[in-house]
Amino acid sequence: MKSREMQRFTLLTFVFALLAYISTEENDLIRDTQYGKIRGELVRSAADPTVEFYSFKGVPYARPPTGQYRFKAPYSAKSWSGVRNTTESAEKCVQIADNFNGKGVVGSEDCLYLEIFEPKTARERENQHGPLPVMVWIHGGTFIFGTARSTGSDYLMQKPVVVVTLQYRVNVFGFLSTEDSYAQGNHGLKDQLHALKWVQANIKHFGGDPNKVTIFGESAGGASVLHHLISKKSRGYFHRAISQSGSALNRWSFQFNPREMAFKLGKHFGIETTSSKQLVEKLREIDYKELQIAAFNKSVVGFYTPYYAQPFAPSLEKKSDAAFLSESMFESLEKGEYTKVPYMSGYNTEEGSFAYDYIVNRRANISMYEEHPELLVPNSMNISDDSPCIQEVIHKVKKFYFKDTNVTDPYNWIKFMSQDLFVRGIIKTMDLIYQSLPMYVYLFSYTGGQPTSYFGGVGHYQEIQYLWYPKGPNDIPIESEEDKLTSRRLITLWTNFAITGNPTPKRDELLQNIVWPQFDSTKPYLVFDDNLSIAHNPNKEDTEFWNELYQKCGNPPYIIY
Q1: Distance from the CA of 181 to the CA of which of 68, 130, 334, 343 falls in 20 to 30 A?
Q2: Is 460 a catalytic residue?
Q3: pLDDT of residue 99
Q4: Which of the following is catalytic: 45, 150, 219, 231?
Q5: Where are the domains of the chain?
Q6: Is 351 a catalytic residue?
Q7: Which InterPro entries does its entry note (predicted)?
Q8: How many whole angstroms separate alpha carbon 330 and alpha carbon 347?
Q9: How far is C-alpha 238 from the geometric centre of its chain's CA atoms?
Q10: Domain range 34-343+351-553, CATH architecture
Q11: Given a cut of 50, is residue 16 above it in pLDDT?
């Protein structure tokens, strides 16, 4: 009898323990947010099956910007009762299909959602019991396409950091502006800020430390990071920053004439008015697909070169309490009016391959540079159309980059475009701010097993494959041991920076015991190739060329560079 009672007691103990375990596991998947409870899932890494992490997708951080909320700053999401399932990614924000090379429209206006990834295995391996550093990713896409859905956090989950990816409105929905209170503009940047505020209020429920937040992004995401450094509205919502292949000083990241573009769009839809109020009210009634297609139609918004400037992009707002950006980015950096936090910035060796993609897919014709050589003149120089400096700049650019030969030569054209679209603005950013904050500069030159360039360099966006696990339908995960080593090094440097504010806080054999020095007057930078090394004075000849040209022919004050 005693034996049976003991067996029954043992069985009941096991059942209760099992139920408690199941209950604990279930509780681990349910988290509080300021708007209600959500349920995620425990995921095994696709990159390393020994690594597990918690995943929460489609987490709302703002109200759907539809109807009366279109062309407005984001509003807080509505609360819900019960437990909301967050295991599926949200729709991408409205954009032209095929990275704006297609003619169709994809995505939804209801797109302001986050994805959150919390390490389980990495926390246990590192014996980390307290809140973890947080890394908030802002995707790129020239402010006209992109999504949080295309990048997986599997590589980053090998480290004890919480990762958040966010979506924000792009193109006409994110950046239409009448330069007044009816459509202030920069709604996409304000979406990002709203998401950062959500992180501050909620990330503790996901094991994250709201006092140790790193914002990082590539291309338009990298430019966005700098916008947040500049905007007073973003201060206090992040503590470190990384800009990859992008700066707020790059020409594609700014729209000089947003109000003109808004009224051109309205005129296409028969909205004949000079009233901002009437224009915006009528545009809110237009079907989102029709609106998106018209915003890309050159017969509607006028001629534009896709990689140079978009009809709808970040712009300066009229000064007000609600303005995100109302001062020149260049002057803000020059005056030291930005958030002073540890900052990492760099670029790839063949960034101009991005622009040549448009030539290959026939979205642009390279011969127009012979027909219209004024395209070689940076619009940031503020040179008037009747100035003799136009011809002088054309002559000097042709001589320096094209050796006085045909300006349609692909090799030289890509080299020029690397400078004109990316490197010139990135280097100028470094020169303007390095004395005021801890800054680390890199050049990514590792070509790897899946090169995407045209002439043997590292193309725009190519480093992303080592930082994020690919989720696109045509993406292939890295396979070679050399590529995997590069990924481990990149992940280690980036997460070291997020954890400590220093990418090499101690010597590490994985990093070849390199100490990455802060950028100073000697201009040291990390060369990220098959091996890591330190060099000095990045982009020296090109930088000197542009500085001399701007000094002679440029007309300050500048907004971009």
Answers
A1: 334
A2: yes
A3: 64
A4: 219
A5: 34-343+351-553
A6: yes
A7: AB_hydrolase_fold (IPR029058), CarbesteraseB (IPR002018), Carboxylesterase_B_AS (IPR019826), Type-B_Carboxylest/Lipase (IPR050309)
A8: 19
A9: 15
A10: 3-Layer(aba) Sandwich (3.40)
A11: no
